[in-house]
Amino acid sequence: MEASCVDSVVSPCLTGGLWCFRSREVFADFKELCRWVLERGNSPDLFAILVWHIWHQRNQSRLQQPCCLTKDLKHEAQARWEEMRASIPRPNQVRPQPKPKWIAPPPNIYKINFDGAVSAEENKAGVGVIIRDCNGEVIASLIQQLEQAFQPVEVEAIAACRAVEFGSELGVGCAIVEGDSEVIVKALRNKDNGLVSFAPLINDVSLFSSLYSELSYSHIRRDGNKVAHSLARLALITPDCTVWMEDVPSHTLRLVQADLAAL
């Protein structure tokens, strides 16, 4: 496409010379010439550079100053156009970020994932918790329905509190508590909640955390917390609290298997 613009406008030909196209085309004005060039799919940038060189040559010649020979106009324009293109920085290629995945904890440490869900229409909330070992094997899972549609951040705080409590009930000594709410995970780490609405829940977590010999908190994006999220969604339609030992509900099994396959 780039070369065709020059060829169609000023390319020398054996029979007609440099301006051979003028024997075939007549233009009422410069605007019509531009339209004729662009309608043929030529580069507007290259055409503009070529026109500038023609105009510059004309002015230099009129003032009897050194100028490019007419036969060299094509090559001069082409060279300047290539130079201009090379100087334009190419946009950075955005590489797709790999989706986060669940990562098993180190040996002798358990990972407790939690999540919360809200149904404003049903005026309910749900909590999901799953505990797994360093091999990705399920130790226990839990769903619990709450008879109130709390704010999302409050439900996440409740889920975090229930996760730490659930682990202590099962005698887990060393654990990583992981969720996809950055606000809650940061609050758990800092233990500085100010006047936020979920401060009492974070304080409760601190009480339960004293029952562990080692406890830390980790944030992961939703794609790495799919099992806990699925459990929380299931809690919205399942009354009360249900616990599975060394298992998960069938609704969530495929997600657990996917996490295992990705280890």
TrEMBL record:
Tell me which domain of life the UniProt entry assigns to the organism this sequence originates from: Eukaryota
Which species?
Lithocarpus litseifolius
How is this protein named in the record?
A: RNase H type-1 domain-containing protein
Occurrences of domain RNase H type-1 (ranges):
113-234
Question: Which GO MF terms does the UniProt record name?
Answer: nucleic acid binding; RNA-DNA hybrid ribonuclease activity
InterPro entries reported in the protein's UniProt record: RNase_H-like_dom_plant (IPR044730), RNase_H-like_EbsB-rel (IPR052929), RNaseH-like_sf (IPR012337), RNaseH_domain (IPR002156), RNaseH_sf (IPR036397)
Write the signal peptide boundaries: none
